[in-house]
C-alpha cells in the first residue's frame, strides 16, 4: 500500500505589510503489495462454490461460516470482485434452472399438491438465498453497492426465480389456477390452507408479477361469480336476507385482504363486489323490499340498507327517492281514505314518529332524508283540501278538554308540539292567517302583564277578595266568535268582575268588555269522606257545584232556574258531573243521559287517586250542517287572498287569458282551490272594476288601473 501524509505550519511576515504564509509538507511512504499466490483465488472459489452447493442441496457445510466470510473479504481485497460476482450468479442460475424440472415431471399432479410443491420450492429458494448472501455479504456491501447497475444478491435470487420458474407460462398458469381454485372453494364455504395461499401470493408480489399474473384474472373471476350470484339470490331471497348476505360477503372479502391478498387489491375487489351485489340491483331491491322494511319497522335491516347503499355510487339518491315516494303513498292513504277520518290525526302522528325514528336511528340524521320527508308530508297532506286541518283542530280540542284524564301536562305538551309540526305541513291561509295567529299570541302576552298590574291593584283595595281572579283579554277580530250567554254568577264573582272592569277601563277608556262565560273555568276546593280535593272545572260546572253548598238535592229545573244555563248546555254539564269517570254528583235515577225529571245530590263518597282532578265538559257533536258551514267560512277567509293574488298578477301582466291567469293563481296560492271558485272571484273583481273582459275575446282579461 502507498501511504500519504501531510502537516502544515503558518508563518507571519510583518514588514512592509502583514502577510501570512501557509506551508504544507507532504510525505509519501510507499511499500510493495505482496504477490498473491497463483492458486489462491481458484482454491478459495472452489471452497466457496462447495459451500453454496451444500446450501442449495440442504447438506452440511464443511467450512466454518466465519472462515467463508473472511475468504470472500480477501478475494474482494485483491480486486477479483467482478469475477466472484459473475461466478456466484452463474452457480445460482444453474441451480434455479434445474428446479423447473420438478414442475414438468408430474403433469397429472392435482392443483393443491402442485401449489404445495411450488411453495416448498419458493421457501427453499428464499432460505438458500439468505444463507448465500450472509456468506457473500462483504461482496454485496462493497462491489455490488458501488455499482448501481448490478442487482444485490437477494434481488438476483428473485430475478432468477422469476425468470426461470414463475415466468414459465405453464408453471405460472397452474400456479394461478390453483390459487383461484382455492379462493373459490373458500367462497363456497370450504376450509382452505390460508397460509399456503398467503405465501404464494407473497411470492408473486415479491417477484413483481402479482398484478399481471394474478390480480387481473382474480378480479375477472370475482366479477363473474358475484354477477351470477346477485342475479340468482335476488330471485330466491327476500330483501332482508339478501342485505345480510351482501354484508357477509363484503366482510369475507375484507377478511381475505387482511389474510392473504395484497393491499392493492382491496379497492378494486370491494368495488367489484359492491357493484355486482348492490349497484346492479338497487332499484329492484328497493321496489321489492323497502316498503316491507318500513312497514315492519325493521330498524336493523334499515340501518344495514343505508350503510350498504352509501357505499355505492348513486345509492343514497336512489334510496332517498324511494323513501320520499313511500311516505307520499302511505301518508296519502291515511289522508285520502274517508273511512279512516276518525283516526286520521293519530295515524299521522304515529306515522310521523315512525319516520322520524327511521331518519334519526337508521339514516344517521341525514339532512337530505329529513328534508325529503318534510316535502313528502307536505305533498300528501294537501291532497285533500281542508279536511286534515279540520280534523287536527278537533283533535287538539279533544286533547285540551280531556286534560289530565288522558295524559299528564308534560305528555299533553309533547302531543301539541307534534300536532303543530303536522299542522305546518298544511298550506295555510297566508298573511291573514299569520296576522290572526300573531294577534292571538300578542293577546296572551299582554294579558299576563295586565294580570300582574291587577294583582297589585287588588292588594291596595280596602276589602281584598278571597277569590283569585285571572282574566285573558282577547281582541275580538283575532279570535273565533262565541255566542254570548247570560248566566247567574254568585255575588262574590259579580263583585270581582266589577272591580276588574273598573281597573281595566280606567287604563283603557273607550273600550268595551264582553264576558264570555262559556270559556271560563275555575278550581274549587271540595271536602269528601276521603279528604280534601281540588276540582278543576268549567264555569258552568262551577255554578252547578256551588249550589250544593246551599242544599243537598236539586232537580234539573231548579238548577236551570238558579244558574241560568241554557237547557242543552246544562244537561251536558250535569252529564259530565254525574255520568262521567269523575262522578262528584249522584243522579237519580241512574243512567248515561240526563232527563228533565232527574234529581242530583252531592257524592260525599267520591274517591280519586289524584289530589287535583280535571272534569271535562262533554262536547256537543258537530253536525253535517256545521261542517258545511265551517268549510264555507274557511273559503270566505281565503277569498280575500284569491282576490289579492288576481289583482297582483293582472297588475304585473296587464293582459292575460283566462287559462294563463288560472295557471298563475295555482302557482301562487298555497292552499287547494276549485276552478269554479276562482272563476267566481274573477267575476267579482270584474264587477268591482278591478279588471275587464276583452270586447272581442271574452276569455281575455285586461287590468284596470
UniProtKB/TrEMBL annotation:
Gene Ontology cellular component list: cullin-RING ubiquitin ligase complex
MF terms in GO: ubiquitin protein ligase binding
Signal peptide limits: none
Source organism superkingdom: Eukaryota
Gene3D superfamilies the record matches: Cullin Repeats, Cullin, Chain C, Domain 2, Winged helix-like DNA-binding domain superfamily/Winged helix DNA-binding domain
Residues annotated as domain Cullin family profile: 374-578
UniProt GO BP: protein ubiquitination; ubiquitin-dependent protein catabolic process
Pathway linked to the protein: Protein modification; protein ubiquitination
Protein name according to UniProt: Cullin 4A
Organism lineage string: Eukaryota, Metazoa, Chordata, Craniata, Vertebrata
Encoding gene (name): cul4a
Amino acid at each position: 500500500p502507498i501511504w500519504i501524509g501531510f502537516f502544515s505550519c503558518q508563518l507571519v511576515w510583518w514588514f512592509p505589510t502583514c502577510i501570512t504564509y501557509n506551508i504544507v509538507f507532504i510525505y509519501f511512504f510507499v511499500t510493495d503489495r505482496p504477490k498473491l499466490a497463483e492458486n489462491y483465488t481458484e482454491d478459495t472459489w472452489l471452497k466457496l462454490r462447495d459451500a453454496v452447493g451444500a446450501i442449495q442441496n440442504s447438506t452440511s457445510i464443511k467450512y466454518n461460516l466465519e472462515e467463508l466470510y473472511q475468504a470472500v473479504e480477501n478475494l474482494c481485497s485483491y480486486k477479483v470482485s467482478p469475477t466472484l460476482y459473475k461466478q456466484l450468479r452463474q452457480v445460482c442460475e444453474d441451480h434455479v434452472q434445474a428446479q423447473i424440472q420438478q414442475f414438468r415431471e408430474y403433469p397429472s399432479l392435482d392443483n393443491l399438491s402442485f401449489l404445495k410443491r411450488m411453495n416448498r420450492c419458493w421457501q427453499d429458494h428464499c432460505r438458500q438465498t439468505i444463507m448465500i448472501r450472509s456468506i457473500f455479504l462483504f461482496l454485496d456491501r462493497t462491489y455490488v453497492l458501488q455499482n448501481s447497475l448490478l442487482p444485490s444478491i437477494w434481488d438476483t435470487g428473485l430475478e432468477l426465480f422469476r425468470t426461470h420458474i414463475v415466468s414459465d407460462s405453464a408453471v405460472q398458469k397452474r400456479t394461478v389456477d390453483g390459487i383461484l381454485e382455492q379462493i373459490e372453494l373458500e367462497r363456497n364455504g370450504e376450509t382452505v390452507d390460508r397460509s399456503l395461499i398467503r405465501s404464494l401470493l407473497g411470492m408473486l408480489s415479491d417477484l413483481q408479477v402479482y398484478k399481471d399474473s394474478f390480480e387481473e384474472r382474480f378480479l375477472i373471476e370475482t366479477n363473474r361469480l358475484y354477477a351470477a350470484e346477485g342475479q340468482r339470490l335476488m330471485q330466491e331471497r327476500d330483501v332482508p336476507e339478501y342485505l345480510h348476505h351482501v354484508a357477509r360477503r363484503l366482510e369475507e372479502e375484507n377478511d381475505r385482504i387482511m389474510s392473504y391478498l395484497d393491499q392493492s387489491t382491496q379497492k378494486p375487489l370491494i368495488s367489484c363486489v359492491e357493484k355486482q351485489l348492490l349497484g346492479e340491483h338497487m332499484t329492484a331491491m328497493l321496489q321489492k323490499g323497502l316498503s316491507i322494511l318500513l312497514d315492519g319497522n325493521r330498524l336493523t335491516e334499515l340501518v344495514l340498507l343505508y350503510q350498504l347503499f352509501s357505499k355505492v355510487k348513486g345509492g343514497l339518491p336512489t334510496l332517498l327517492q324511494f323513501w320520499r315516494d313511500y311516505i307520499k303513498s302511505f301518508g296519502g292513504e291515511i289522508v285520502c281514505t274517508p273511512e279512516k277520518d276518525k283516526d286520521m290525526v293519530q295515524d299521522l302522528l304515529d306515522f310521523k314518529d315512525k319516520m322520524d325514528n327511521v331518519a334519526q336511528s337508521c339514516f344517521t340524521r341525514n339532512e337530505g332524508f329529513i328534508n325529503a320527508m318534510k316535502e313528502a308530508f307536505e305533498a300528501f297532506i294537501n291532497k285533500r283540501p281542508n279536511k286534515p286541518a279540520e280534523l287536527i283542530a278537533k283533535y287538539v280540542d279533544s286533547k285540551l278538554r280531556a286534560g289530565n284524564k288522558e295524559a299528564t301536562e308534560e305528555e299533553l305538551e309533547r302531543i301539541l308540539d307534534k300536532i303543530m309540526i303536522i299542522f305546518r305541513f298544511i298550506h295555510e291561509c297566508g298573511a291573514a292567517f299569520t296576522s290572526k295567529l300573531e294577534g292571538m299570541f300578542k293577546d296572551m302576552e299582554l294579558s299576563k302583564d295586565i294580570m300582574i298590574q291587577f294583582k297589585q291593584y287588588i292588594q291596595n283595595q280596602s276589602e281584598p277578595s278571597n277569590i283569585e281572579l285571572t282574566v285573558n283579554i282577547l281582541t275580538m277580530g283575532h279570535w273565533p266568535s262565541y255566542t254570548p250567554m247570560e248566566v247567574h254568577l254568585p255575588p262574590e264573582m259579580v263583585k270581582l268582575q266589577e272591580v276588574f272592569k273598573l281597573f281595566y277601563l280606567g287604563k283603557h277608556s273607550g273600550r268595551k268588555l264582553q264576558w264570555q262565560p262559556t270559556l271560563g273555568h275555575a278550581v274549587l276546593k271540595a271536602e269528601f269522606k276521603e279528604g280534601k280535593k281540588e276540582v278543576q272545572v268549567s264555569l258552568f260546572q262551577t255554578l252547578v257545584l256551588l249550589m250544593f253548598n246551599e242544599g243537598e238535592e236539586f232537580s234539573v229545573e231548579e238548577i236551570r232556574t238558579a244558574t241560568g244555563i241554557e237547557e242543552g248546555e246544562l244537561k251536558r254539564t250535569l252529564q259530565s258531573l254525574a255520568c262521567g269517570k269523575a262522578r262528584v254528583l249522584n243522579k237519580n235515577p241512574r243512567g248515561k243521559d240526563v232527563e228533565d225529571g232527574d234529581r242530583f245530590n252531592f257524592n260525599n263518597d267520591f274517591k280519586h287517586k289524584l289530589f287535583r282532578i280535571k272534569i271535562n265538559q262533554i262536547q256537543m257533536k258537530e253536525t253535517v250542517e256545521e261542517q258545511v258551514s265551517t268549510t264555507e267560512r274557511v273559503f270566505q277567509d281565503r277569498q280575500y287572498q284569491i282576490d289579492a293574488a288576481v289583482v297582483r298578477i293582472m297588475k304585473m301582466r296587464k293582459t292575460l287569458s283566462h287559462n294563463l291567469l288560472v295557471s298563475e293563481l295555482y302557482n301562487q296560492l298555497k292552499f287547494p282551490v276549485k276552478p269554479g271558485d276562482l272563476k267566481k272571484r274573477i267575476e267579482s273583481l270584474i264587477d268591482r272594476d278591478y279588471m275587464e273582459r276583452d270586447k272581442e275575446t271574452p276569455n281575455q282579461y285586461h287590468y284596470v288601473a
